[in-house]
Amino acid sequence: MMNNLSARPWHVSLPALRNFCCSSRALWLHGFLIISLTVARQPKALFSAQFWAEDGTYWYREAYESGWACIFEPHTGYLQSASRLTALLAVQFPLLWGPVLFALVALIIQVLPPIFLLSSRFDAVLPSRTARLVLAYFYVALPNSWEIHVNLTNAQWHLGLLGFLIVVSQRPSGWAEWAFDLFFLTLAGLSGPFVIILAPLAWLHCFQKHSRHGVVRALLLSALAVAQILFLVFATRPAYSLGASGFLFTQIISNQIVLGAGIGENFTRQLIARPIWSLPWMPLFMALAAGLLVVGALVHGPQIYRLFVLFASLQLAAALVSPQISMTEPQWLSMTLPGCGGRYFFLPMLAWFASLVVLASMRWRIARIIAIVLMALSVIGIFGDWNQHVSRQAGFEAAARAFDRADAGAQMTFPINPDGWSMTLTKHPPGERAR
Q: Taking Cα atoms as reference points, which of 262, 294, 258, 301 lies closest to residue 5?
């Protein structure tokens, strides 16, 4: 099964191109390109950084007020340690530096999955170097994904993907690779609920491969999953009306995943605004057709692909059961609109595109043609959604400088992104910040 992604459509015979794909020297070049392209999609996220939503309202403010006590404080029912650890570091510096540090950490986390996928750790797991390149750079250019772009609050989604890649990767070859695996598995496990899905997948992969070193990963993830489950059981998570229905489900699949990963958010919004899209059979047909293609890919695809589809499907199921998008209308209705709750469709969109990559490697000509045409459509989405335009709140920089100069006891409220969010801080006496 693993050889399907090394089939003729993905075979590269030119030595120079093969070296460019995934040689150890080329990995540094890919890392540079991946970082550069990620920054280019939204330069202001790094060069004019500001807090985003929970970044300021919760992570920075609670770290500033409570110090290390906030690290074990769950948010929306579970631990989010990556954000809190970054905030605890940021409060040691002037407030103006905080958003920059948040953006740098978010950028590092975001670029790690594609670089890791292109590394030698996947030479035996996914032998097709060309397929890995296509998947890695599609991740970088993913349409319908502005919500999780260089954003610390939503960096947990990238950490979840990195955790999956570590689970299915080859055995670490030295202490540095072991340290990398254990550190990022722990960080991912303590920074979101993904570990609850990753733990059983780690055991499944361990048994399938008869991997003794995989037991270490599975045991670590199991312990972290138990911790997150305990927090979910005893913590409170806001509950909103779902408004679930079969018609809305097909719209979510077609609008957010198939079209979202294909023609992108901007062009999908234009398409679904047309009267014909209100007919129930349109999204139903698209969802069913996409489902049949995925089934075909599951039958012929490698084991790593099947595990990833299972991972993404379980995450999507959890998101549909307990989403948090709108406080004014049913959640599923909001989820039908591209751009709303895009974090929930990050992994499913990648799984959908991976299905097309698998189909494009099959020897059945019709499957290859369909997959290649659909992959080509993604160029439209990449073009339409390339620039990640996020508004910047006027006056934050000036207010941050004023706060850094203010006397102890001064209280200030800062506007942060998106509109409607703010952060209120009371200035500590000198020396009290680092607690």
A: 301
Q: Would you report the helix, strand and coil content of the chain in percent, each value rounded to 5?
A: 70, 5, 25
Instruction: Report the b/e string of 379-418 with b at 16+ CB within 10 A.
Output: eebbebbeebebeebeebbebbeebeeeeeeeeeebbbbe
| C-alpha span between 184 and 192 (Å, rounded) | 12
**How far, in Å, CA of 30 to CA of 118, rounded?**
8
Residues in the chain: 435
Q: What is the pTM of this model?
A: 0.91
Predicted confidence (pLDDT) per residue in 103-152, tens digit: 999 999 999 999 999 999 999 898 888 999 999 999 999 999 999 999 99
C-alpha to C-alpha distance for 113 and 404, rounded to whole angstroms = 36
Residues 38-64 pLDDT 10s: 999 999 888 888 898 889 889 999 999
d(CA 167, CA 161): 10
